[in-house]
Predict the 3D structure of the following.
Amino acid sequence: MKRKQLLPFLILHFSFFILTGCVSQYKVVVGFSPELKGHFTEIPTIEVDIAAVTDSEADEVKQMGVEKYFDPGSGIRNRLQSQTCFFYREEQNTYVLPSRAPVWQIWKLKEPANVLVIASLPHDPSITSQADPRYLAIKIKPSFVLARTIYILVEPKKIIQITRATSKKGETQSLSKDSGQWVEIR
């Protein structure tokens, strides 16, 4: 390729790279706290939804509330194309939504500003804070090169975003705050 042709080629490809990199795609890892098994006498099926949403969609879900969001008649889960993972007493796996999941292509079309994580944990009347601890809207930060990872831990009364550390050997530890390898983000 000649030098005169190379410059427009590079500008075109660099512009494409910037335009396609405006909305980050995240890998989302959801783990279920070991305390869940001991907390409930009869464990309900707990659903955790993940969706990339605009600010107005995040506000709509927050105003709607967790119970109404998970109501089968609300239809918002379908509209947002939420991805769901489940917790059962028998199965307590870690769930991973890959950054290359096909749903990201659909979500990116609306230029989302948040990754919404919402859990169908039973309402706890003893929690009187204004913010529902079963709902998280995590701001999307632009990233042009690498996908970022969001770690979520589902506890008996709330969901929390945590960071992940590795052991001295560089091995990944299990998803547990108590191991000292995971740290809650506030």
User: Anything to note?
Assistant: The chain has a mean pLDDT of 77. Helices lie at 3-20, 35-39, 55-64, 66-70, 76-80, 103-108.
